[in-house]
Amino acid sequence: MKKSIYAVVGAAVIALGAAAFFSGGAAAAPASTFVLLDGSRHSTEDLKGKVTLVNFWATSCVTCVAEMPKVIATYDQYKGQGFETLAVAMSYDPPAYVVNYAETRKLPFKVAIDNTGAVAKAWGDVQLTPTSYLVDKQGRIVKRYVGEPDFAELHSLIEKLLAA
């Protein structure tokens, strides 16, 4: 009797794991409103139809500043193929610093300031920067990166999602 219960439970666990694996295990990106530097607003819904890198960062974050040229290069490489980048500055980052950084570095993608911290909270209570999420065309989070991503692996995944 016990063996058959274990077998049924084991089969159920395997089936759930397989379902999560084959569906990609991707969860919908949380409903959020991003306030861009120009004052315009974009929502999670606006991400649909493109593969998007949502990058939580801060001007005071050494790793964020170090990875930014690679984030720019990634955006430049794939922007013509349906790829978008949205850089979300953390709530503790002074807005004047964010604006100055974006202007002096000529960031070519959308930059938002999470003044209240609500966006970081919605996206899994992001506290460590950089934290990035790769979102597919259907608005599902495919991959989360804490720290600088392996850009070769990121590019491979972007190419796969753009082709889908």
From TrEMBL:
The keyword Signal applies. InterPro entries: Redoxin (IPR013740), Thioredoxin-like_sf (IPR036249), Thioredoxin_domain (IPR013766), Thioredoxin_ResA/DsbE_sf (IPR050553). CDD domains: TlpA_like_family. Gene3D superfamilies: Glutaredoxin. Residues 23-163 form the Thioredoxin domain. Residues 1-28 form the signal peptide. It comes from the Bacteria. This is Redoxin family protein. GO terms for molecular function: oxidoreductase activity. Keywords: Signal. Pfam families: Redoxin. It comes from Xylophilus rhododendri.
